[in-house]
Amino acid sequence: MIPDDPNPPMRPSGLRLGTPAPTARGMGTEDMAEIGTIIAEALAANGDRAIEEKLAARTRVLTSRFPVPGL
């Protein structure tokens, strides 16, 4: 649930992101800032495939530095 969201959990009116998964992979504050920037740019891209492909490449570079524990 999103705190103070008037909508029920299955129809949230916002996006809630957490840090457990990135921190479990060893990401820090700078990495989380990059994730936030990528999300913001993806939303602003408004479906522009060229921009989305560049953001996907940035995401692959970022996540390749932090393997999922146990995999």
Task: Please tell me about this protein's structure.
With 71 residues, the chain is an all-alpha fold. It has a domain at 21-64. The chain is 54% helix and 0% strand. The chain has three helices and no strands. The longest helix is centred in the middle third of the chain and has 17 residues, at 29-45. The model has no long low-confidence stretch (mean pLDDT 92).
The whole-number mean of residue pLDDT values reads: 92
Which parts are unreliable, with pLDDT below 50 for 5 consecutive residues or more?
Answer: none
Beta content: under 5%
Strand tally:
0
Helix and strand run: HHH
Radius of gyration: 15 Å
- What structural class do helix, strand and pairing data support? mainly alpha
- Shape verdict: flat
* Beginning-to-end CA distance, first to last residue: 29 Å
Helical residues, percent: 40-55%
Q: Number of helix segments?
A: 3
Q: What is the makeup of the main sheet?
A: none
Short key terms for the protein model shown above:
71 residues, 3 helices, flat, mainly alpha
What is this structure, in a nutshell?
By secondary structure, this protein is an all-alpha fold. The chain is built from three helices and no strands. The radius of gyration is 15 Å and the shape is flat.
